[in-house]
Amino acid sequence: MFKTIGALTVGAVTAALMASATLAQDYTEPPSFGRVSLSSGFTPDPYVRNLTAGGSIRAQDRFSDCRGYIANAPDFSVNYTAGSLPLIFTVDSDADTTLVINGPDARWYCDDDGAESPLNPLVRFSNPQSGRYDVWVGTYSRGAGVPATLFVSELGEYTRDSQSGNSGYGSGLDISLASRFADITLNGGFLPDPYQLRLTAGGPVSVSDSFDFQTSSCRGYVTREPSVELDYTGYGDLFIYTNGDADTTLVVNGPDGQWYCSDDEIGTDAGLEFNNATQGVYDIYVGTYSQGDRQTTLMISEIEMGYLPSRK
Hints:
Elements: E1 15-17, E2 35-39, E3 47-53, E4 57-58, H1 59-62, E5 69-70, E6 76-81, E7 87-92, E8 97-102, E9 108-112, E10 122-125, E11 131-139, E12 146-153, H2 160-163, E13 182-186, E14 195-201, E15 205-206, E16 221-222, E17 228-232, E18 238-243, E19 248-253, E20 259-263, E21 271-274, E22 280-288, E23 294-301
Parallel strand pairs: 2-6, 13-17
Antiparallel strand pairs: 1-9, 3-12, 4-5, 6-11, 7-10, 7-12, 8-9, 8-11, 14-23, 15-16, 17-22, 18-21, 18-23, 19-20, 19-22
C-alpha cells in the first residue's frame, strides 16, 4: 500500500529517547545488511533493502518505550543529506516487526504497528537532519530471525505488494540469506586488483521466472542465496565479471535496491559496470546459462571490464 504525504499519519506513538552509552545498542558495529548514502530527492524512491529482522536483545530492556527483539549491531545504516522533504522508514514482513532508529541527533526513535498496513512499524522524521540513521528491525516475538523489507522514502509508506510490479523483486531470490561463498569488504583503490574468487556458478532457481518484470538480460540459473555479498566503500567505477570456460550469467542487487543482470558481456562470461559506483552492499549471484553447476572465477575490479592481471 502507498500513502501520500498528505494522507500520512502515524497510528502509533513514536518514542524519542535519550539513552546512556552503557545501555545503547552498539552503533559503532558495522551494519549487518550494509549502508547507503541518500540525498534529498533521491531516486528511485523508495530505497529498498531486504534483510533479516530480529535478535536476542529485548528492546524494552534497553529503552522502556520500545518493543521487540533486536540485534546488537545495526541492521542497516543510512547517511542522509536533508532537504525540504520528510524522511520515512517503514518495514514490511509476514511477521510482526518493530523499528529502533538512532538518529543524527543521537536520540533513539521506536515504533511498533505505526504504519497503516497491519503489524508494520513506521518512523517519520518530519524535519530530518542530515547525518547517519542507524536502523534496527526487530521482531515483536522472541525467536529466530525472519525475512523483512526495509523501505526508506521521502514520499510515504510502502509495502512489498505495492512495489512488486515496479522495482523488480526477485521472487525466488532472497538477499537476506547468508551468502554461499564469501562476504567481502573492498575499499576504494583496493589491492590486488582485480579481486578474484573461485566459486561454483549455477543453482536450481530460474532467473527469468523469478522477476515480476521481463527483461532479456535476466536469465540463467542461480541459488536462492547470493553467491557473494560485497560491501564496497569506494567512489570510482566498479566492474563485476566472470572469467572461465563456462557460459555464466550475473544477477546483482545493488545498494540502490535495484536488480542488474548480464549474460555474454565478454564472450560467454558475464559482466556488469557500475559507473561512479554507489557505496554499500552488492548482493552478487553467479549463475549458469543452462541448468547444472560449473566452476568459474568471480572478478571485481576498478580498472576496466574484463581486466586480467598479467602472468609472468
